[in-house]
Amino acid sequence: MISTLNHELLNSLDLKVLAVQRTEAGRWWNFQQVISPFSRLWLILDGRAVVRHHEREFSLRPGHLHLVPAFTVHDCSCARHFNHYHLHFAARLPTGIDLFSLLDSEHQVIAAPDTLALFQRLEAIYPDRKLPCFDPGREEYKRFPALTEQAESPARALDNFEAKGTLTLLLTQFLRSARPHEGVHARVTRQFLAVQEFIHTHMDQRILLNDLARVVELNPTYFSDQFKRVIGVRPLDYLMRRRIERAQYLLLTSQSSVKEIANAVGVPDPAYFSRVFTRLCQSSPTQYRSSHVR
Question: Which of 66, 126, 224, 284 has the most crowded Cβ, counting Cβ within 10 A?
């Protein structure tokens, strides 16, 4: 068991199902240097395929579950046919970091007897969460996860609650044997947890790159490069995404004005806040609130 993942931390995980569907793949399922800000989980039903990551080659075989954590560069290919369920999901700590970026876990396990039923249940809950295409290089594929997260409706609270429980049962098959990272990478990751905690607790304040670098006592340029390597985006881009996510929450759960919310998330210029929100969420703050709050 994972000694560092205590009861409070596990209960604080933010779990989201981004896409789930069954797919019969063929030789077209051949993609190189794929990297995404979400994790992938495959349940192999029939056929064979190969995936390469973490300097290993894995044979995807029937009856197995395979996990590709977020921000993991991987290659995948199929020689003939590959019948599988695939699930794209996010598993984040309160500070926004991906859970599996902190862990060394098995990437492939024998699926538990009820695994197929769990995938089928998720597909029944979210019949509309199908990928617009299968090529990770296409723009509509890249945009789909963010659009899915933004479309989550408070009116579907019970469905979302059940989906999180179902996803938890799937992930437990990997978490039981997981261990915290060891070595240099682990120390770097823990450093950036402190940075994300700083962002989380100082969201309403003006934060510069120097402020974030100071948390871990690194040169700002070196810190920015290392942060992008570990987390996947530059620190100030990460900061703005967290600000907008907080704004989305406040728009749905409070009566505060857009100007008040902009101040609360540390973007005191309402016009600039609206421009960034619209770019990241594909709608203005006012439109976002009116389309999700009934």
Answer: 66
**Is the domain of 216 the same as that of 89?**
no
Q: In the listed set 180, 198, 227, which residue is the last one of a domain according to the structure?
A: 180
Measured from the Cβ of residue 170, the count of other Cβ atoms closer than 10 Å reads 21
Q: Does 102 fall in a domain?
A: yes
pLDDT bin (cut points 50, 70, 90) of residue 106 is very high
Say if 50 falls within a structural domain: yes
How far is residue 60's CA from residue 64's CA, in Å, rounded to a whole number?
7
How many separate domains does the chain show?
2
pLDDT in tens, 197-238: 788 888 899 999 999 999 989 999 999 998 887 666 788 988
Structure tokens of 163? 């989906």
Q: Which of 70, 49, 290 is nearest to 189 (CA)?
A: 70
Please state, in angstroms and rounded to a whole number, the distance separating the CA atoms of residues 209 and 224: 8
**pTM here?**
0.67
What is the Cβ-side half-sphere exposure of residue 89, based on CA atoms within 13 angstroms?
Answer: 30
How many whole angstroms separate alpha carbon 240 and alpha carbon 192? 16
Residues 39 and 140 in one domain: yes
Same domain flag for 225 and 202:
yes
Compute the distance between CA of residue 53 and CA of residue 72 in angstroms, rounded to an integer.
Answer: 7
Q: Are residues 175 and 233 in the same domain?
A: no
List pLDDT tens digits, range 244-279.
878 887 887 788 999 999 999 999 999 999 999 998
- Asked if residue 182 has pLDDT above 60, the reply is no
* 168 and 193 together in one domain: no
Cα–Cα distance between 136 and 86 in angstroms, integer? 14
Whole-number percent of the chain with pLDDT over 90: 48
123/127 Cα distance (integer angstroms): 5
Is 289's pLDDT higher than 90?
A: no
